[in-house]
Amino acid sequence: xKVDSDIQVVQAEFRDASKRDIEAIAALHxxxxxxxxxxxxxxxxxxxxxxADRRALWTDRLASTRVRxxxxxxxxxxxxxxxxxxxxxxxxxxxxxxxLDNLHVRHDLKGHRIGSQLMAETARAVLxxxxxxxxxxxVLEQNEAARAFYDAxxxxxxxxxxxxxxxxxxxxxxxxxxxxxxVLIGRK
Length: 188
Known about the structure:
The protein has 188 residues and is an alpha+beta fold. Helices cover 31% and strands 31% of the residues. The chain is built from 5 helices and 7 strands. It has a 7-stranded mixed sheet with strand order 1-2-3-4-5-7-6, sandwiched between helices.
């Protein structure tokens, strides 16, 4: 893939998420779904209170008293403002390894390598905690921009699955895999 030398690489700060990030992560998650999942998820769901749906999920993930040693949520910040996040479930699948369940970057910062940096941080976390694990994710088939992003980062499409969409209906997901997540470390 040709890299445009005019693209400004933004170096974000990365850290593990905490319960203080629930509102910001939920807001970014809801905004991303509204922008990118239109046509896959119902308009009624996306135009409704998708923020409340995402806040409930992130409250469960980050404020729960249950220990979640098999999960890792990394946030990206610029000037103390949350601009992206990645959530991974370690040892999710015996064949594919860790599931990168969520990867979202604020829409106005796409193309500045924050998503690539989050994937590298995710790969480091997976390799640190489960060294022999692969990494995989699901991407909506209709999301061509995300598919191009994963292709450019060495992902291989290894399956297709139809599942229920939030709010009703069904969606087609593609499984992208990285048998060796270390290939994501150092990629621009």
